[in-house]
Amino acid sequence: MLPYGRQSIDESDIEAVAEVLRGDWLTTGPAVQAFECEIGLLAGTSEPAVSVTSGTAALHTAYAGLGVGPGDEVITTPLTFFATATTAMWQGARIVFADISEDTGNLDPLAVKDAMTTRTAVVAGVDFAGHPIDATALSEVAHAGGALLLEDAAHSIAGVLDGEPVGSLADVTTFSFFPTKNLTTAEGGALVSSHVEILDRARDFKGIGYTRDPARLRSEADGPWYYEVQSLGLNYRLPDVLAALGSNQLKRIEGFKARRREIHHRYNEGLAGIDALRLPVTRAGADPMWHLYPLRIVDGRRRRLFDHLRSNGIGVQVNYLPVHVQPIFAELGWRQGQFPVAETYSEQEISLPMFPGLTDADVDRVVELVRDFVGT
Question: Active site: which residues (predicted)?
């Protein structure tokens, strides 16, 4: 079965991990610090990243860093992995959904504007499939209402919009390093920001809420063992073993991006001119790091195409089921029909295989099977 996504691991990755295993630090050591600096540099921020144990942990830590709490509202998209919403709920926030732009699948700034209230604390956009959100418009809407912009860039590390790297476009940006993502630490994630106070709160939160920093202690230390718990937090610390893998992957990320671009272009060429299909777009100014190839079939035969490809050894996927119709949100009053653009997109979408190890022959085989199905 040809998977829809797969990690790219080589011998240099294995050696980087082995080197840490031979050393003194398996966690909370120099490999983590180095990785955080490298991610911050790639993201175009003035500060190192805060690394964590997963993309979900990155979102949770980001909301904590943003100060989200009970009484706040977070506006986000229905077309995402549900953690974009549920991690804000862990902080006590109320989730408000807004519809998407039909072309990119990303949060629609006009829909967000309509959903804003005096309680809106954060607007959380998602770089669906790797295409950056309309960060300029979303920032304007969020900031005009006294809110901050979070960019869930789980799909788009190393992406660029209008010459600026993903990570520098929003008040805070989160990444995921799951194996199918654009670089991997096996499990892991990170958040970046140019706001030092957000990063400080985030670092405290992911580090269980305690500190040994002499400058921050509220009582006089009676020895080098002294520490204080000053806030609630969780242990979301990424270990050195995984950070070393991430650092080595970063050495190849431009190659990963170039190959994903080539695959995206080959799909576009092979599937062009078919009325039943809608191909992903690239807006002017966007240089995406393509994580998915989100093909849409608009004639109602998505399930049949899915089964056809799976039965021929192509491990396609659907991204995503609309979040607002999940039982946890249906119980809060959200209903099918409230976000027609996102719902239609979800009903039509099928993710074709997309990872650097795909060969041109693999891509051509997928294209041929799709074209055979639609009768071209």
Answer: 181
Q: Is the pLDDT of residue 376 over 80?
A: no
| Helix (H), strand (E) counts: the chain | 13, 17
Q: What is the pLDDT of residues 221-259, one digit of tens each?
A: 989 999 999 999 999 999 999 999 999 999 999 999 999
The reported pTM is 0.97
One-character DSSP codes across 227-261 = -EE-S---B-PPPHHHHHHHHHHHTTHHHHHHHHH
Radius of gyration of the chain (CA): 21
Average pLDDT over residues 4-26: 97
Q: What is the C-alpha separation between 45 and 168, in angstroms, rounded?
A: 6
CA distance 31 to 301: 48
Q: Which domains does the chain have, with CATH numbers?
A: 2-249 (3.40.640.10), 253-374 (3.90.1150.10)
At residue 360's C-alpha, the angle toward residues 187 and 302, to 5°, is 70
Catalytic residue among 181, 206, 251, 257: 181
- Cα–Cα distance, 147 to 150 (Å, whole number): 10
Q: Is 251 among the residues known to form the active site? A: no
